[in-house]
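Check the record.
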Amino acid sequence: MKKIFSRVSYNDQELLGSNIQKLELKYYKVKNNIKRGYGIEIAKKEICNNKNLKENKYYENISLNEKVVDKLLEILSINKVTPVISDDVIYDFLKEINQDM
């Protein structure tokens, strides 16, 4: 089951100097009912030079703990993390979480 966690857009000031007219990111929490774990999906929708571009990245079974996944999604959305750089951010987050346990 996939449920939207948050949606963020870049404002005009953040896009200044680029060819991008609009950039929107959506962050989803994905519940795996079979394995009882949680994953995430990051969806990027961009209008650049009047072309619609889409990019998605899915991460399966991030954690069995829903609160851990919620915290990760919060960090990703606050920092407007795009799919292309999400690997590093998620790796660092999980590394930090595992050290705290």
Remarks:
- The chain has a mean pLDDT of 93.
- The two ends are 28 Å apart (CA to CA).
